[in-house]
Amino acid sequence: MLKRLATQINRPVRLMEVCGTHTVAIFRQGVRELLPDGLSLISGPGCPVCVTAVEDIEKAMEISRKENVIFTTFGDMMRV
């Protein structure tokens, strides 16, 4: 898959992983070293659950209660 991806990259591509658990797994498994030239990973701000303000959660809950709204989120956020 990475070889095929390498043939399709014609400009620099940066992908951000946003969860600390993903960052650790990527590091431990050596994924960064396997990426083709032109593709890089950037560590994001952290787990969405950890960096989301209470006010934002309350606003999301308000929106989710509206009629005809389907509100999606990370599974971890559902437990907050």
Question: What are the main properties of this structure?
Answer:
single chain, alpha+beta, 2 domains, two-stranded parallel ribbon, 50% helix
How are the secondary structure elements laid out?
Elements: H1 2-8, E1 13-17, H2 20-29, H3 31-34, E2 39-43, H4 48-51, H5 54-64, H6 75-78
Parallel strand pairs: 1-2
Task: Outline the structure in words.
The chain is α+β, with helices and mostly antiparallel strands and 80 residues long. It folds into two domains: 46 residues, no CATH class; 34 residues, no CATH class. It has a two-stranded parallel sheet. The model has no long low-confidence stretch (mean pLDDT 87).
As residue ranges, the low-confidence spans are none
Radius of gyration: 17 Å
* H/E element order: HEHHEHHH
Q: Number of helical runs?
A: 6
Total domain units: 2
Structure in a nutshell:
By secondary structure, the chain is of the alpha+beta class. Helix content is 50%, strand content 12%.
